[in-house]
Each structure stands twice: as C-alpha cells, then as structure tokens.
Amino acid sequence: MVGFLDFSLLRDFFSLLLLQVSMWGSDSFLVISPSEPIVAMLGMDTVLPCHVSPAMSAENMELRWFRSEFSEAVYVYQDGMEQVGEQLVDFKGRAELVKDYITEGRVSVRIYSLRVSDSGIYKCFFKKGSEFQEATLELKVIGLGSGPHVFMVGPEGTGIRLTCTGKRWFPQPEVQWKDAMGEKIPSLSEVETQDDDGLFQIEASLIVRDSSKREVSCSMKNPFFGQEQVETISIPESFFPRTSPWMTAFAVTFIILGIFLGAVVFLAWKERQEKKRTQEAQTEKEKESKDKGKTVNQTCSLAVNHLRKSLGEESNYINKTGEKNSLKQGLITQSEHKVTASFLRTTTFHCGMTYSPPPRPTFAVAVTLDPDTAHHNLILSENRKQVSLMGNAPQNCDASVHQGQGESETIFSVLGQNCFTTGRHYWEIEVNIGTEVGLEPRWAVGVCSDTAERDGWFVESPEKNFWVIAYNKGVLISCPESLSLRQHPQRIGVFLDLEDKDVSFYNMVDGSHIYSFTGITFYETLRPYLSLQCAGTYVTICSASDDTENYPESSPKTHLKSRDTGVAQEANPLLPS
C-alpha cells in the first residue's frame, strides 16, 4: 500500500514538471490574483495586485484592469505607457500602475480615495503576442460611520421607547440590542436609508417594558470588517410608567360611598321594622346598628390609611431629585398628587378624622438680585426680587438690530446674588408683560458664567457662556432654535443640575417642559441671569411661599391661592413647605 502511494506521488510530480518545462518553452502563462476579497476603508487608498506564472517580464505586455465589461477599463497599459482613451471617467486621475516588479511579472493598480461605488468585481487582463489570460478579484469598500447614539424618546404604553441611530455606514451595519447580562433583545423596528454617496443611515427602535432591564446597549457591526461600536444607556427606575395613585383613591372612595349608601338603606329598613316589633326587637336592632357602625368606622379608617400611604409614596416619588429629569417627573405627578390629596381630605372629613397634609420636598433656592451687576437703566425693588426698566430708558425691543448704535442698542441685564459651582438648584421667575401700544417686549431668563461679557450689545448664547430662553417679537427662542409652545409661559421654573451638566426650563402654569441644555461643561461659577427691553415689562423672582397651601384645622374646605391663570392650584411640590 505504501509503495503504491509513493508511485502515485512520483507520477504527479513528473507530470507537473513536464507541464512547467513545456510552458517555459513557449509563450504560455497564467494570471493569478488574490483568492480572498480585498477589504479597504472608505476614503483610503488600495491596490489590486495580479502576477503571471511562471515569472516573466510584463513590460511589453498589454495590461488591463476592468469591471464587468472589457470596455469598462479602470486602467490600461500598452506599448510601455498608460492609455487613457478607454478609461472610465470615475477612475481618471484616481488610478495608477504600480510597476516596481514589472520585470518579474508582478504589477498592481492603485486606486486613490475609495468610494462606495468602487466596491465590486474586477478583472486583470494580461496579453503577450497572441496569448492572453485574465483573473478575477473582488474589492469590498467599508465605511465605519458615526454612532451608535442611543436616545430615550419617552414613555410609550407600559414601557420606555429607545432609539439607536448611526450615520455614514457602508455596507449596512448589523444592529443588535443587549441588556446588562448580554442577552440579545430584538428590535421593534429598523429603518435604513442611503444618502447621495451611497452611505447608510440607520435608526432602530426598542420598547423596554421590564423595569429590571435598566441598562441597555446598542451595537453596530460592519459585516465585512467585523469591527463593532457600542453605546450603553441607563434608564432611571422612576422613568418607567406606573399605575396612577388617583385610580386607587377613586376606587376606594366609591367603595366607601357604597358602604355608606348600604348603611342608609339598611337603617331605613330597620326603622320600618321597629314599628312592628316589640321592645326586645328594638334592643336587638340597637345592638346590630352598633356592630354595623363599628364595621363602617374600621373600613373608613383602613381607607384613610390607604390614601395616606398612597399620598406619602407619591410625595416620596416627587422628592427623588437624584435622578436625571426628576424635576420634570415631579411636575407630571403634581396633578396626581392633588387628586389624591383631595380624596384624602374628603374621606377624613366624612370619617370624623383630622386631615394632616403630607410633607413636601425641599430643593428650591431663594434667589435675590445683585444691584452691583445691574445695568443703570434697570430698577430693582427694595427686597431685590423684582426688576423693571426705567420709563425714560432707550427702547430697543428688536433683537435683530444690534450694530453699535450707542445705548439704544444695549441689553439691560442683571445677575443673581447666588453663586453656584456644585449641586442641583431650582427657582421660579414670573414675567409680567407691559401693554404699551406698538412695542413688542423682549426678555430673557436663565443662567450665565460669572465672568460672561455683558457690556453693550452681546449675544446670549452657550458659546458666550449664556444658557437662557428668550422671548422676542412674540416668539420664544432658545439659541440656536425657536421653540413652539401651546402658550407663552408667564411663570418659568429654572432647574440647574451641575452634577448631570444640564439646565432645564419648565412652564409652571401647566407643568410642561420647555427646553433643556444638556451635556454642558461648566468651567466657572454660574449665577442666575435676567435681561429686559421695553418699558412696562417687569420680572419677579418668586419666593418659596408664593404658591403654598393654607391647610385648615378641621374642615375639608381648603383655601388655595390662584395664579394669574385664574385656576386654583395645589401646593407646588417643587417648593419647600
């Protein structure tokens, strides 16, 4: 058996040797190209190599690299020089012959500044006299774009919608969601588009309904190159939708009312029976009534305790200021807090119990204005809580005209006395717009750096260390964009979060979110900032007691202060009690 194998190998060796000798004695040759695809980055350079076997000089050969058709020439070499007449327009000036080893039959075509359209199959063609051969090779151009970037869109149904986006990828990347344990989560939807350069834009969506999956990652992977990019997002537990407390309170109140109605019907029936019974029946009736009254009191007490527990948990939820955007969550649950409190007052009144309001969170700061930083045309109140413009001050209500025209083109501004370097801080500002005919008021509120330039006319933008929203000519703006609101706010909440590096603004009339500056890098001390144009408009910094509730001693009828909107409001959960 071993001898047979040795004979077979020897025979094959002599056959190859004879073939090689026959080729050396003639003009026959083979063209060899890479068997594996050539992978190159978008925008970079690459080479398409080919060589002849056996090795021989290719200086006097006709060499051609082309796409699917012979006439679609990428590069042509003939008569010892480049021939551009047949070359495709897309490759003119981008292709050259690398002929350092042309005497050995090894040549390449270098393509510069690779494009998406360069991907595909190529052929290299070698011709010597009447003999010619060709070989096929494949080029794969890949682009590792930007991203992925993961965003939390907001609550949807019983979960939180997340979006993962990526731009300028080629080919289309593979998108994969995973939880903190590395388990794959299927995408809800994936949308991909291609721009004019043929690069892919990807947007994948996911709804997280399991509150235990608070850390989710999105990865994008190039299927050719294998390189993967990942971004992870953490979802605060408080962002997951919860069952509204007022629904429980509503159901408990109906149960209590049903019990009372049943008791009234039962007592009326018993009263009719009393006329027909003897003294013994009357005694028995009184005993039963006493037992029923005890049951009602126990049920009422349980209901009140349940309401107080619900309201207490809601207050604790509102008071979680450590989580990002917790201020906005507090505004959202404010209406639920009011409904539960109203049911609790009604229930305790009917049960003959004393109503005690739950404690409220405290994280507001008392802001006062610094007269040393106020423009001389501004008037500050004695308590430094209100600022207005002098009646004879130059009127400049058009923020679009700001080429040096003297004091009429000056922004009248003032800073707060407070200086912030760390922590979280919240305050409210109320704007009262003047009624002068023909004048459009302009004002701006927010924060700025302690060293920001405020002389003459200046731009209130983040690039100049100003993070503000401004009202100008009937439009609310926040550099660099205009804001579309249902109504222009009269009372504005400002939330400065130096730990999470953002500044947020809220409409305190309806509790809606206006705008947030996020991902800010604060290098200096920040202070509250106000500016005014046009007489008749004045701005007031609201004290913590401007919107509190006067709780009664033993009556369910509670007096509530009303804001300018004319709507009765519960105590603001964002202000200290």
Please give a handful of descriptors for the protein shown.
Immunoglobulin-like; flat; 4 domains; 7-stranded antiparallel β-sheet; single chain; 577 residues
Explain this structure:
With 577 residues, this protein is of the alpha+beta class. The protein folds into 4 domains: 26-142, Immunoglobulins (Immunoglobulin-like), CATH 2.60.40.10; 146-239, Immunoglobulin-like; 245-361, no CATH class; 371-541, Jelly Rolls, CATH 2.60.120. Helices cover 20% and strands 34% of the residues. It contains 5 helices and 33 strands. The strands form 7 sheets. Strands 19-20-31-22-27-28-29 form a 7-stranded antiparallel β-sheet, with helices on one face. Strands 2-10-9-4-5-6 form a 6-stranded mixed β-sheet, with no helix packed on it. A hairpin with a 2-residue loop joins strand 9 and strand 10. Helix 2 runs antiparallel to helix 3 (279-318) and helix 2 runs parallel beside helix 5 (334-350). 27% of the residues are buried.
